[in-house]
Amino acid sequence: MRKLTAAPHGLHGELAVPGDKSISHRALMLGAIAAGATTIEHWLAGEDCLHTLQALRAVGVTIERHGTTVTVQGQQGAARFNAPHAPLEMGNSGTTTRLLMGLLSGTTFTSTLMGDDSLQRRPMERVTHPLAELGVQIELSSAGTLPAQVHGGPVHGGTVQLEVASAQVKSAVLLAALNAQTPTVVVEKLPTRDHTEIMLRQFGADLTTAADQRTITLQPQPHLTGQTVVVPGDLSSAAFFLVAATIVPHSEVRLINVNLNPTRTGILRVLEQMGADITITPLPTTGEPRGDVLVRSHSLRPIQLTAPAIPAVIDELPLVALLAATAQGTSTIRGAAELRVKETDRIAVLKTELTKLGVTVTEYPDGLAITGRPEWQPQTTTLDSHGDHRIGMMLAVAALRSSTPLSLENDAAVAVSYPQFFTDLEHLRGGRA
Ligand code: S3P
């Protein structure tokens, strides 16, 4: 349990947040199957990415880490991985699990993937079904969940239509399709984050994305060469401070070197639409777009979000709910049923926790309606992350503007994506006005 504190004088200063989680996972995996060494700078040393690192070591990949600099000795294909001596532990990480299902299909052995209680409840057929269309064999529990047995073996190309808008599923298919003999076309329901595509191109793959942004064609058997990957700051981590500085009066915060890939910047569009005061300064780059974001506190109007807007803000929807809780009027988030199968059922958990703060929340099967108020009336002194990192950090941000003292249960969950979150928050709380 952690005591949360308000920030009556606002948040101030500059912050470089840790590296992007999605990109950190992918850099390890592509480094592992490339030829030669890959160096990853500003890698995210959070629990989820550490599970990817450990799993790759367990299949024989040599990986050295010094803080946030990681060197991966590429094996020239998953076929050169070694069978692990024990089940591979995925912890809480859906990205590790789903991407590895694709990557490990290219091995010559069977791997078992296990996860924590939350991960063991999350749906995996969304990955195994499209992978089966390429000939990949994966066995799941009767509930369609972990543990999974991934059988390495031949993969064939083809056209795969995805039923769920999910970058994890798309990435698993692309990673498996690297080993096919013929091209693979992946058609998404809606465009999702394209880090796998960008990085595959950087490593030398021949991959094209059609003008509709949701049809991707991958040529098989590319020669992937080890690279230097400089990971930008994670916008999903920066978002906690962008929102905090917006809703806590007297704040002015600059987040430096954050990922500005448009498939991820939904939270910036939401902030702009709600009337926030943000200034974006792009930085020169050859890979993933990146830049600085300056934010000053500002009052907000409500927002209505529907399905097409969801993928680019999927991980920030708890923060959108918090923004809505301070806006004058009722906001709605719909077309977001995916929130129910994240680290927690985030729709249910958001309703529970925001209601504790005295905010009026209506739950729908695919979203929420939230009626904001400038002053909350907390019904409790204890909030709960429910073991979900993003819920925990969102609640710590909420507490910054609370007039009554609050505590957070299960605060250790933040280490999944942002181990130094509370230290960075203190840095900005202590910043000079
Ligand atoms: C991720 C994709 C998203 C996101 C997750 C990371 C990725 O999940 O929520 O935090 O790195 O590909 P889905 O693919 O399930 O939408």
TrEMBL record:
PROSITE patterns: EPSP_SYNTHASE_1 (PS00104), EPSP_SYNTHASE_2 (PS00885). GO terms for molecular function: 3-phosphoshikimate 1-carboxyvinyltransferase activity. Its EC number is 2.5.1.19. It is found in: Cytoplasm. The active site is at 315 (proton acceptor). Phosphoenolpyruvate binds at residues 21, 94, 122, 168, 346, 390. Keywords: Amino-acid biosynthesis, Aromatic amino acid biosynthesis, Cytoplasm, Transferase. Its main location: cytoplasm. Pfam families: EPSP_synthase (PF00275). Pathway: Metabolic intermediate biosynthesis; chorismate biosynthesis; chorismate from D-erythrose 4-phosphate and phosphoenolpyruvate: step 6/7. It catalyses: 3-phosphoshikimate + phosphoenolpyruvate = 5-O-(1-carboxyvinyl)-3-phosphoshikimate + phosphate. 3-phosphoshikimate binds at residues 21-22, 26, 166, 168, 315, 342. CDD domains: EPSP_synthase (cd01556). The keyword Amino-acid biosynthesis applies. Residues 8-425 form the Enolpyruvate transferase domain. Catalyzes the transfer of the enolpyruvyl moiety of phosphoenolpyruvate (PEP) to the 5-hydroxyl of shikimate-3-phosphate (S3P) to produce enolpyruvyl shikimate-3-phosphate and inorganic phosphate. Belongs to the EPSP synthase family. Monomer. HAMAP family: EPSP_synth. This is 3-phosphoshikimate 1-carboxyvinyltransferase. It comes from Fructilactobacillus hinvesii.
